[in-house]
Write a structure and sequence with these properties.
92 residues; mainly alpha; elongated
């Protein structure tokens, strides 16, 4: 379980860095929909982080699968938002 927790923590740190990069890219240029997407990503990251903390004090094996699925969704969403912002920046 410790390896899983370290892996999730590393991915959460990476997503935090990616979100900051996206925010920098979007600063002053993002539409309200893009701002909402960024805020949603931040919220999802906090949610996964909280689930990880809960898992540390639990024996719930289903929680691990939920966290893995949530991380996959978060990473997919990060990629989509970053791609959209980069293409918008390139076309301006």
């Amino acid at each position: 379980m410790a390896e899983f927790e370290q892996n999730v923590s590393a991915q959460l740190e990476k997503s935090k860095s990616q979100i900051k990069e996206i925010e920098t890219l979007a600063k002053g240029k993002a539409s309200q929909a893009e701002i909402d997407a960024i805020n949603s990503l931040k919220s999802k990251r906090r949610e996964i982080s909280q689930k990880l903390q809960d898992l540390k004090t639990s024996v719930d094996t289903k929680a691990k699968a939920v966290i893995e699925a949530d991380l996959t969704k978060l990473n997919d969403s990060l990629g989509q938002v970053a791609t959209k912002l980069k293409s918008n920046a390139a076309s301006k």
